[in-house]
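During the practical work, I selected for study one protein's amino acid sequence and its C-alpha cells, as given directly below:
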Amino acid sequence: MAERVAARVSSPSYQAYQILHVAFTVAPVVAGLDKFTHFLVNWDQYLSPMMPRFGVSVHTFMLGVGAVEVVAGLIVAFAPRIGGWIVGLWLCGIILNLLTIPGYLDIALRDLGLALGAFALARLSEEYAS
C-alpha cells in the first residue's frame, strides 16, 4: 500500500494535477476577492462596454463577478472534477468579453492558456481526485 502511494506521489502526472489543483483554487479566490479591494488592479477596466450590466454599475457588476470567482475557486478546492470545468468555461466567457475591448488581446490569449489548464485539471481529476 505504501509503495502504491509513493509511486502515485512521485508520478509526474499526479504532481501536475496537484499544481493545477492548487493554482485553480487559489487564483480564482484571490482574483475574486480583489474585485472588492482593487489591490492588484482596477478590475472595472476589463468589462466591455458592450457587456449588458442588467441596470447595475460596472463596479457593482464586477463585485458579482468577484463573488462568482470565489465560489468557483472553492468548488475547485473540494470538487476539482467539476470546478475545473466551471473555471475553464468562466475563463472562456472572460475571453469573449476581452475580445470586444481594443488592446486586451494579450490578456485574452493568457486567459486561453489558463482555460486550457483548468480543463486539464478537470481531466486529471478523473484519475486523481479522491
Q: What stands out?
A: Helices lie at 2-9, 12-37, 58-78, 80-98, 105-128. The chain has one domain: 13-128.
